[in-house]
């Protein structure tokens, strides 16, 4: 579905991506891996047209997209959930989802597709709550739900569970948490919230048939959700394959910190 070859990217004079190759076959869930600063986010931004690239090609379903504006790439069926989620905290869940509809109306999508609420029941329950009042895990589900409004063929996610913290939406929340802790009441289960997000990504891939490319640093999650891996090191791809073939040697060489 997505084929990248000989891609180079520079931030000013700093050469960040070097002759990069990446294949994301239709129906697969590909995990981009590598230590901090190797260029994973830069590669995702290059695919989305958010940073300029030099040379090489980016093909989406056989069509060259390297010179296209970011909005056109979205219309061609590439959904993107950036790091940090970027949801609107003062808008309700439903209003947040509707912000995705403006671009979607060009594709004939006029209302929020029901399968988004099926995929994320919590968004249905909380449709009238403000985005800023949701927990980190719920906000991440909202960000993914919003990307699904465009009915993407390819969904790109940058570290979807990074930064999921206990719900400290206000000083009051903070005080409650501290009080709970002093009474021995455990804070909300972060691991469970992260697992929920990963499970949803797995279902989006398998049940909705959406091809997925994601950056995920946590190996157990990556192994669980992805079918293929691509490891990067200093701006270059160094190893690719089926997730079942990701060896301990590769992990040690390129992923262990
Ligand atoms: N806007 C920018 N201007 C200049 N250099 C940048 C910019 N954004 C990133 N870089 C540099 O490019 C390199 C790759 O960064 P990038 O964020 O793509 O890596 P990453 O693998 O996603 O890292 P992480 O896992 O920490 O998110 C790093 O050396 C980083 O400092």
From TrEMBL:
<dbReference type="Pfam" id="PF00005">
    <property type="entry name" value="ABC_tran"/>
</dbReference>
<keyword id="KW-0547">Nucleotide-binding</keyword>
<dbReference type="InterPro" id="IPR003439">
    <property type="entry name" value="ABC_transporter-like_ATP-bd"/>
</dbReference>
<dbReference type="InterPro" id="IPR052156">
    <property type="entry name" value="BCAA_Transport_ATP-bd_LivF"/>
</dbReference>
<protein>
    <submittedName>
        <fullName>Urea ABC transporter ATP-binding subunit UrtE</fullName>
    </submittedName>
</protein>
<keyword id="KW-0029">Amino-acid transport</keyword>
<dbReference type="GO" id="GO:0005524">
    <property type="term" value="F:ATP binding"/>
</dbReference>
<dbReference type="GO" id="GO:0015807">
    <property type="term" value="P:L-amino acid transport"/>
</dbReference>
<keyword id="KW-0067">ATP-binding</keyword>
<dbReference type="InterPro" id="IPR003593">
    <property type="entry name" value="AAA+_ATPase"/>
</dbReference>
<dbReference type="GO" id="GO:0015658">
    <property type="term" value="F:branched-chain amino acid transmembrane transporter activity"/>
</dbReference>
<feature type="domain" description="ABC transporter">
    <location>
        <begin position="2"/>
        <end position="255"/>
    </location>
</feature>
<dbReference type="GO" id="GO:0016887">
    <property type="term" value="F:ATP hydrolysis activity"/>
</dbReference>
<dbReference type="InterPro" id="IPR027417">
    <property type="entry name" value="P-loop_NTPase"/>
</dbReference>
<keyword id="KW-0813">Transport</keyword>
<comment type="similarity">
    <text>Belongs to the ABC transporter superfamily.</text>
</comment>
């Amino acid at each position: 579905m997505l084929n990248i070859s000989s891609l180079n990217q520079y931030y000013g004079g700093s050469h960040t991506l070097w002759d990069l190759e990446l294949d994301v076959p239709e129906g697969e869930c590909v995990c981009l891996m590598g230590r901090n600063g190797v260029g994973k986010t830069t590669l995702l931004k290059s695919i989305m047209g958010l940073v300029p690239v030099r040379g090489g090609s980016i093909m989406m379903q056989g069509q060259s997209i390297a010179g296209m504006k970011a909005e056109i790439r979205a219309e061609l069926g590439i959904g993107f959930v950036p790091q940090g989620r970027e949801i609107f905290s003062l808008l309700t869940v439903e209003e947040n989802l509707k912000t995705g509809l403006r671009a979607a109306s060009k594709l004939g999508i006029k209302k929020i597709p029901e399968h988004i609420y099926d995929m994320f029941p919590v968004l249905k329950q909380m449709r009238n709550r403000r985005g800023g009042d949701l927990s980190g895990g719920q906000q991440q589900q909202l960000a993914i739900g919003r990307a699904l409004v465009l009915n993407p063929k390819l969904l790109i996610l940058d570290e979807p569970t990074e930064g999921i913290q206990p719900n400290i939406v206000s000083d009051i929340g903070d005080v409650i948490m501290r009080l709970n802790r002093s009474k021995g009441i455990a804070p909300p289960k972060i691991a469970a919230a992260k697992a929920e997000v990963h499970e949803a990504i797995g279902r989006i891939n398998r049940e909705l048939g959406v091809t997925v490319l994601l950056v995920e640093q946590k190996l157990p999650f990556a192994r669980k959700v992805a079918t293929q891996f691509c490891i990067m090191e200093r701006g270059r791809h160094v190893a690719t394959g089926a997730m079942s073939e990701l060896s301990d040697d590769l992990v040690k060489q390129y992923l262990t910190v």
